[in-house]
Amino acid sequence: MNNTLMKPMGIANAGDEMFQMIEQNVSSQLIGQKELVRSMMICLLCDGHLLIEGLPGLAKTTAAKTFASAFEGEFMRIQFTPDLLPSDLIGTDIFLQEQGRFEFRKGPLFNHIVLADEINRAPAKVQSALLEAMGEKQISIGLERHELPDLFMVMATQNPIEQEGTYRLPEAQLDRFLLHVNVGYPSHNEELQIIELDEKRHQPTSADKPLPHINQEAIFAARQRVKQTYIDEKLKHYIVSLINATREPQKYSDKLASWLHVGASPRATLGVVNVAKAIAYLEGDDYVTPSHIQEAVPNVLRHRIVEAFEAEAEGISRDQIIRHLLEVVALP
């Protein structure tokens, strides 16, 4: 069982050709990142947020910026640093001396697509400033609440935790991300294509073709169609069983019980349902199948479970735990 969403991206209906157009255009500029492009598409369709993890130089930031350029709306990149303050994200009240009153000045979070670059380089206080925005689509300043746009998506990049000068993201914040995608090194042929693409971009006669813009009304309409994708009651029970197995692993496998310390929250259950529907939609299916669920589970659970000391001592990764989870929980 693959631990990532690796199937070729399809298209749900003839009326949804815009998503195929986005995938083709973005993928043409991001060699070897088809899984990441698909994950960004899924988060957009599910009204969720995406955490992208990988070593420096793997085009995480470029992928987010290229993807955002395909949509109608405001894009903002925030470089997270150790000296960043919460007010640098959400904004602050400014006193207008001539008028004798305070006025709220919006921060960069008040944009449609926000790239939180190297999010784990800022301390926990700054990272927690995203919690309300990501969960409630609003910002609270004092006694006032300020609504964020209806189309609001956070794409955060981070380097591995082992890198110097990084901070571990709070568990509550990790749970707000719908998907957690690992970005690896490109293959030999893909890296050759990257060289060729870079050479073309630096040619005097070359000019990047602008990506087509998709309006927000079309995105909201597609989200409604994703929600209407049918999922059988037996598959709902299967999803709940998968999540319960992370909380009570001793009922399923002694090995799983020794590897898991903390299980997934109910938000993970909803995440698997919604992501499975989005996968079915993108592949042109009118209903969810077990394979859609099994593809959705790894990226939904990767950041929501905590391995036990025994797993760390044995060098067992979270992806290995999830693969075993899918093996021991029976299909309906």
UniProtKB/TrEMBL annotation:
Provide any one GO MF term from the record.
ATP binding
ATPase AAA-3 domain boundaries: 49-179
Q: Which Pfam families match?
A: AAA_3, AAA_lid_2
Query: Which keywords describe this protein according to UniProt?
Result: ATP-binding, Nucleotide-binding
Task: List residues of the ChlI/MoxR AAA lid domain.
Answer: 261-324
Q: Does the keyword ATP-binding apply?
A: yes
As for family, the record states: Belongs to the MoxR family.
Name of this protein? MoxR-like ATPase
